């Protein structure tokens, strides 16, 4: 008889655990019990200035350094501006861009080629839109994808049904292509839901919320994993610091202070 799989503390067998896509952010991988389950589509949501793009870029950079090409599809900001900002971080290896292991591309020229540069998308535009994104992912050979932001695309879809149809089909196609994806969502600072339109979180495999908390006159950035299919994870809120060498994550103590990990 084959040996019985060794069990983890939570009782799940290691052999049965799905393969992980390590983010390269040590604290986040620890929270997720090893990383994002491979092929998951994760909603990375938060207000302006909470570190969404930086987290996405570090996720892509780590993957490219370890043989997994990455793509950032810039929807709401020019990709060159994002790239120039990332070059100020010590963790970011711009040679990966030169070697075409990392791709920073603008969505607008891609959509324009298909006459999708319009204010409102119709139902028959959705397959064209999805195909354009998937074709771009495949041409880049990407296994890690960041769409920054998914909100910028959904603004053109005027019904919740169309939004849900687009996201569910896009996520399925990305998973089928072997990609692990971060879908960046923009929300207002006081927003009570997880996304701009309230439909994204129902389709996504995971939700990571970046926010702010005021403590002794300082505005601290925070991270909270609300859900992640395929892995047990901490649901605590953590403080994050965007250092030149990468994101550092420490627990947010109940008193509101940050403590050692």
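Sequence proposed for the structure above (261 residues):
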């Amino acid at each position: 008889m084959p040996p019985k799989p060794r069990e983890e503390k939570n009782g799940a067998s290691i052999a049965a655990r799905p393969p992980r896509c390590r983010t390269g952010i040590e604290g986040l991988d620890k929270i997720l019990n090893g990383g994002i389950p491979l092929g998951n589509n994760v909603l990375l949501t938060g207000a302006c200035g909470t570190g969404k793009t930086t987290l996405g870029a570090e996720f892509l950079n780590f993957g490219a350094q370890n043989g997994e090409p990455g793509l950032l599809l810039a929807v709401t900001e020019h990709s060159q501006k994002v790239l120039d900002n990332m070059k100020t971080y010590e963790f970011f290896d711009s040679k990966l861009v030169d070697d075409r292991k990392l791709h920073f591309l603008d969505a607008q020229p891609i959509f324009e080629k298909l006459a999708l540069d319009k204010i409102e998308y119709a139902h028959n535009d959705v397959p064209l839109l999805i195909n354009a994104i998937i074709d771009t992912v495949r041409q880049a050979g990407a296994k890690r994808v960041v769409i920054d932001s998914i909100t910028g695309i959904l603004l053109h879809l005027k019904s919740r049904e169309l939004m849900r149809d687009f996201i569910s089909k896009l996520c399925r196609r990305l998973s089928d292509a072997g990609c692990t994806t971060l879908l960046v969502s923009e929300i207002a600072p006081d927003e009570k839901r997880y996304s701009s339109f309230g439909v994204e979180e129902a389709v996504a495999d995971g939700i990571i919320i970046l926010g702010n908390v005021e403590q002794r006159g300082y505005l601290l950035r925070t991270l909270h994993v609300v859900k992640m299919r395929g892995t047990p994870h901490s649901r605590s809120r953590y403080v994050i610091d965007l250092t030149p060498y990468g994101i550092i994550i420490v627990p947010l103590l109940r008193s509101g202070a940050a403590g050692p990990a």
